[in-house]
Amino acid sequence: MIKYDSYNETSNVYDHLMRKIDYKEWGKYLKKITKPFLKNNPAVLEIAGGTGKLAEILSKKFPNYLLTDKSCKMLQQSKIKNKIVMDFTTPSVNQKYDLILCTFDSVNYLLSKKKLLQLLLSVNELLTQDGIFTFDVSLAKNSIQHSDESFRKHKFSNHKIIQLSSFNEFSQIHKNEFRFYSENILIKKEIHKQKIYPFELYFNLINKSGLFVVECFECFTERKCKPNSKRAQFIVKKNRC
What we know:
With 241 residues, this protein is α/β, with parallel strands linked by helices. 26% of the residues lie in helices and 35% in strands. It contains 7 helices and 12 strands. Residues 1-5 have low confidence and may be disordered.
């Protein structure tokens, strides 16, 4: 048995696993909430963009678009041409951007407050003075719900994939384990961990990084997010002083 703690194997089936996600509606939502803050033809950076499904939609609206992800194998699945491998906590681009995006709970994969602050400091360096950073995060209520739905079975090509989800309320770690079977033999396993941070911590670290919160919505709505919401959508900007 081979065990990975990355997206080496999942990258090959990621789009199949996420096939029920309505990326078109997600793209519409992101365009709507960011429109009031953007100039014409903004420079856009998507971090942790995975296989680029959102990038395919958003880059039609924003031609000056760069897709990035830490996983080379995930990016290889993308149809987007303008893409590079990049760890979003240590960006390797020199340009500044009017809009930086991070979606699908990717921020939760940062397992320490130090890493989370490092991301926010990096974003501060990459944003133009009037630029915005929008990202979504999973909160405790969402993890509790999904750990109740802890077992999922997927079939892809000649493979069977078992997905096990668990949430440790003490450590606040949400774990997704993917087991890959061929002819009913377990051949590979990947474990993906996310840290579910307290709602208020994001505001504290955002302020500490020299950014400030412009809006914080419940994901996919324009309702104000609360600590007991399932997911939060942040829009942040740079401080001027």
